[in-house]
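Good morning C.,

I know you're traveling, so I'll keep this short. The sequence:
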Amino acid sequence: MKKQRIVVTAGPTYEPIDAVRVITNLSTGLMGYEIAKEAKRRGFSVTLITGPTSLTPPKGTKTVRVMTAGEMYKETRSASKNADCLIMAAAVADFKVAHKIEGKIKKQKELILKLSQNIDILKNIPRGRLKAKVGFALESSDLIGNARRKMIDKKLDLIVANKIGGKARPFGKGNKDFILLQPGKRPAYFKNKPKERIARAILDTLKNSVL
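The tokens, ready to paste straight into the viewer:
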């Protein structure tokens, strides 16, 4: 029986401002790496497309390293053409500098940058042969409402929602709170769980529904 193929994205993206500075975020990549690790353990053929992190990719995965949102989109679109499932766990920068400055900007009292919007990778990946598209929603308010709207807008089969703000710190190691949402189904709540447990829950959900 042919192995099912899963594409997992992970980590942040870096959007250059000049030769040394970037726009990025606090993602460590741990969630995506845990998903890739669990998928590999279950016998899937795994392609991990990762932004800059300090993590070591799971053994046996095909790892593609990228920096910018544009690079991640190109590699994800290419890898997804022959995949059964795409899990977009990367925290892609929403904006990039409209015009990258050559060299290094000298220190100054004020610097004004014009930003332009990056491509919405998950929304622009064609369904093709994909049986499942999975996204993440990080919200500071109306968590379930915003996650459901994103799920509908991007035509997702599953979305993983988590909150930021107050005591909620979703990045990095430690136990976290997550909610899994599927179209037409009640939310599944996971309280104070390590990310490897969330990875198992995501793949269990897909196994029971589409994979």
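Safe travels,
E.
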